[in-house]
Specification:
Blueprint lengths: L2 H10 L1 H33 L3 H10 L9 H10 L1 H25 L2 H5 L5 H33 L8 H28 L3 H24 L17 H5 L5 H21 L10
Helix pairs in contact: 1-7, 2-4, 2-5, 2-7, 4-8, 5-7, 5-8, 5-9, 7-8, 8-9, 8-11
Length: about 270
């Protein structure tokens, strides 16, 4: 890894990181507020009836629900809004780091210096991890702030909340590793970005539909989102195998990228 390149990368992307962190902190703050303000009252109003089951099915995404604090926290991590925000860093940066530089014709300039392709890749991977960890930390701060200011912090289990944060960081780091592998495989942004975004959307859709539609349930293990269940983690029912599978996918993506990137023929951009 190149410390100088990492420092310059973090400096170049600092405003994007701050913007994403602010958005995630705001989103994380809002969900406990919604629960404290409306969720508990609505839950008591419709408890036990058909309307309760209907509302649960309409609001449940990845085990999340505004009717409980744990469910609200789950939504703050697995809802499409925070996923889209984190994707700016977890997918946008990795694609720009290799395929983007290649498309602009600037990767050869970087590699003309005494730095190997593996060091360039390792630096991009380290920056991706730092971006993801920083973004998810902002979401965690927002959740704790919202729960504290609206007097529901006594319902929080901080050990389980930290476990959710760690697993969320692992999920998005895995997606970042997959994005870097795609970025190392293409000379243009469009095919690399299209491949990763297509995988992300299909994977999320499979998990969501599988949770709501019994006929799709058998497909859920093929989704990376199936291995991040924040509601189960908050309930203390998480499976250690989920984190192991995500780590295995990330390791495979890193191994592939370290193999393919040094072997790429970086022809002049057309």
């Amino acid at each position: 890894m190149s410390a100088v390149l990492l420092q310059r990368t973090l400096g170049a992307w600092r405003w994007r990181l701050l913007a994403v962190a602010a958005g995630l902190a705001t989103w994380g703050f809002l969900l406990p507020v919604v629960y404290a303000t409306f969720g508990a009252e609505i839950r008591r109003l419709v408890q036990g009836g058909y309307l309760s089951e209907l509302l649960e099915s309409l609001t449940a995404i990845g085990g999340g629900s505004v009717f409980t604090l744990d469910g609200s926290i789950a939504l703050s991590f697995i809802h499409p809004i925070p996923i889209a925000m984190v994707a700016v860093l977890a997918i946008g940066y990795p694609i720009a780091a290799l395929a983007g530089e290649r498309q602009r014709g600037t990767l050869e300039v970087l590699l003309a210096r005494p730095i190997s392709r593996r060091r360039v890749y390792a630096t991009a991977l380290a920056a991706t991890c730092l971006f993801v960890v920083g973004a998810m930390a902002a979401s965690l701060v927002g959740v704790v702030a919202g729960a504290t200011l609206f007097d529901v912090a006594d319902e929080l289990r901080m050990d389980r909340l930290l476990a959710v944060w760690a697993n969320a960081a692992l999920l998005f780091t895995t997606l970042g590793a997959l994005a870097l592998a795609a970025s190392a495989s293409f000379d243009r942004v469009a095919p690399a970005l299209g491949l990763v975004l297509g995988f992300l959307i299909v994977s999320y859709a499979v998990e969501l539909l599988g949770a709501l539609w019994p006929d799709m349930a058998a497909w859920r293990p093929w989704s990376v989102f199936h291995y991040f269940q924040p509601a189960e983690i908050m309930a203390g029912d998480a499976s250690p195998a989920d984190a192991a599978i995500l780590a295995g996918i990330a390791a495979a993506a890193v191994g592939y990228a370290l193999w393919i990137f040094p072997r790429r023929d970086l022809a002049a951009p057309s």
